[in-house]
Amino acid sequence: MSWTYIQGILMLAGINMIAVLGLSLLTGFTGLFSFGHAGFMAIGAYVGAWISASPASTPAGLGLPFILAIVGGGAAAGIVSYFIGRISLNLKGDYFCIATLGFGEAIRLIFNNVNRFGGARGWPGVPGRSTFLVILIADVIAILFLANLVKSRHGRNMIAVREEELAAQIAGINVFRYKMISLIISAVYAGVAGVFFAHYMTFIQPKMFSLTKSTELTIIVIFGGLGSISGSVLGALVLTALPELLRAFEIWRLVFYGAAVILIMVSRPKGLMGGMELTPSGIRKVLAERNALREAKTKLLADAQSGEED
């Protein structure tokens, strides 16, 4: 297994990680399940490709710097999410999830019929500007931004909305506003991931952003652990690399992949991390909880033994 092959897997994992971190904010920290984030990735991918592609290679390209493609793709996804949020965030429970599912499929069908960007045949004129270093830097920035956001007052308000929406509203938190902020940030993350994906593959096609992709992102978030940034990072690394590691099994690899996901979810219903963070404070908290539990068990045994002696 060559370093180039391993690097390619890590780059795909890094791209998925950006989208998963955004979805983790929406689902894990705000409590809104979305099955339409592949649509935001598609918007980022196509807008980013349109901005960066050379007019000499494709009539649809503007030939601008890659950094503008990243900003433009993320901004486009964020703007679209604002209008989607205005329509759908007032829906309760499963209805929001169904609305996002419909949005994701609608975006895929729209790009499927836009001949300027290749339509269903795809768009092969995307420059290959996604490098390992650039994706790594983007991952670090995405993690740091999300970690600081979650620790801030805004992040605590989002968690309060997740825990009990009515109580948060009574406490004076603008529930709709924080849902909207969470949706926009998660869409920007997905849009940026779409830009990197397009410039890594150098070819994009609407079917790459189907419901399957949205489901994959949601599975990674749940697999890693809701409400855990570390879990999202580990989930993206594990579930992106796992199908490649099982490639030797050919047609059975997806069966083993599904079985591995089910095994983890059965053995650890809260995901790999279960809401815990791989930070010094997070590790100290877990150790303190385990010590308290051990001391409580020891005290109960001692009380039981003294009661028998009496």
From TrEMBL:
The keyword Transferase is assigned to this record: no
Membrane topology qualifier: Multi-pass membrane protein
Transmembrane segments: 6-25, 32-51, 63-83, 95-111, 131-150, 183-205, 217-239, 251-268
Keywords for this protein: Cell membrane, Membrane, Transmembrane, Transmembrane helix
Pfam families documented for this protein: BPD_transp_2
One Gene Ontology cellular component annotation held by this UniProt entry: plasma membrane
Keyword Cell membrane assigned: yes
Taxonomic superkingdom: Bacteria
GO molecular function: branched-chain amino acid transmembrane transporter activity
Subcellular location as annotated: Cell membrane
InterPro entries linked: ABC_transp_permease, LivM-like
PANTHER family xref list: HIGH-AFFINITY BRANCHED-CHAIN AMINO ACID TRANSPORT PROTEIN BRAE, HIGH-AFFINITY BRANCHED-CHAIN AMINO ACID TRANSPORT SYSTEM PERMEASE
Protein name: Inner-membrane translocator
Source organism of the structure: uncultured spirochete
